[in-house]
Write a structure and sequence with these properties.
The complex is a heterodimer. Chain A has no helices and eleven strands. By secondary structure, chain A is mostly beta strands. Chain A has a single domain, classed as Sandwich (Immunoglobulin-like). By secondary structure, chain B is mainly beta. In chain B, strands 2, 4, 5, 6, 9, 10 and 11 form a seven-stranded mixed sheet that branches. In chain B, strands 1-3-8-7 form a four-stranded antiparallel sheet, with no helix packed on it. The radius of gyration of chain B is 13 Å and the shape is globular. The chains are: A mainly beta, B mainly beta. At the A-B interface, strand 4, strand 5 and strand 9 of A face strand 10 of B.
Chain lengths: ~110, ~110
């Protein structure tokens, strides 16, 4: 069962632009993780958010967990070609994890 | 840093062969997972294990089995590989208990011809 909806599925932007990726659910999660995956590699953890309303920053990346802990967003400022990849969100509920289908981002130099 | 290591990055096997995918983690994590990732389908859970010698079926266990004889090692077995098992296989681990962060290995690309 797919509990997490990610949008958009595909995104192609010019270097220097800003973008936001959304991860939405009707379920409550105890924590939510964001990963970046490059072709042929495993997902690499970017951040874990735990508290409703929490905001975390990682250089040009800003992550927010919704107040009700049902959704999250990832905002990238001044995107760089090195940001290209598949972005996955994953929600933890009990001992289970539920993954979004991912957002494929291409940043054009 | 957490390290999840998958021993085989790229494999090509023939239909009907028995295939072993090995995964080792070095952080004493109780929980380990095997997923497969296919375009348009996202990550799908095959099997997971809460502890040594324990295993639970995930969403798509058919055609697969697993073994966890030691805490650090979780093996995925394809008893008789078929072409529809061509995929990227991802091993993951985490500390036991609810929530916590899940960490992935580098992935194993399996092609069945």
């Amino acid at each position: 069962t797919q509990l997490l909806e990610q949008s958009p599925q595909f995104l192609s932007i010019q270097e220097g632009e800003n973008l936001t990726v959304y991860c939405n659910s009707s379920s409550v999660f105890s924590s939510l993780q964001w990963y970046r995956q490059e072709p042929g590699e495993g997902p690499v953890l970017l951040v874990t958010v735990v508290t409703g309303g929490e905001v975390k920053k990682l250089k040009r990346l800003t992550f927010q967990f919704g107040d009700a802990r049902k959704d999250s967003s990832l905002h990238i400022t001044a995107a760089q070609p090195g940001d290209t990849g598949l972005y996955l969100c994953a929600g933890a509920a009990g001992n289970q994890f539920y993954f979004g289908t991912g957002t494929s981002l291409t940043v054009i130099p | 840093d957490v390290k999840v290591t998958q021993s085989s990055r790229y494999l090509v096997k023939r239909t009907g062969e028995k295939v072993f995918l090995e995964c080792v983690q070095d952080m004493d994590h109780e929980n380990m997972f095997w997923y497969r990732q296919d375009p348009g389908l996202g990550l799908r859970l095959i099997y997971f294990s809460y502890d040594v010698k324990m295993k639970e079926k995930g969403d798509i266990p058919e055609g697969y089995s697993v073994s966890r004889e030691k805490k650090e090692r979780f093996s995925l077995i394809l008893e008789s590989a078929s072409t529809n098992q061509t995929s990227m296989y991802l091993c993951a681990s985490k500390v036991g208990g609810a929530g916590n962060t899940i960490y992935f290995g580098e992935g194993s690309w399996l092609t069945v011809v």
